[in-house]
Design a protein that fits this description.
The protein has about 60 residues and is an alpha+beta fold. The protein contains 2 helices and 4 strands, in the order βαββαβ. Bound molecules: FE3-S4 cluster (F3S).
Length: about 60
């Protein structure tokens, strides 16, 4: 599983970071980005799906590759 954050949609709600602090970084402007290339370790897939489902801006997406 691999995810990304759409920088144009992210408004800095930081719920993603709350669910999965090792998968997301919050930058100086309060916006989120994925750590590394967004690859999600198997044991964190549940947390990643919670982050996707709970982002109010629908800014997190699962990549299909
Ligand atoms: Fe941004 Fe959504 Fe996270 S708005 S900071 S990707 S919860």
């Amino acid at each position: 599983m691999r995810i990304r954050v759409d920088e144009e949609k992210c408004q800095g709600h930081a719920r993603c970071y709350g669910f999965a602090p090792t998968l997301f970084d919050i930058d100086d402007f309060g916006l989120s980005r994925v750590v590394g290339d967004g690859t999600v370790p198997t044991e964190l897939e549940g947390a990643a799906r919670l982050a996707i489902a709970n982002c109010p801006e629908f800014a997190i997406e699962e990549l299909s590759d």
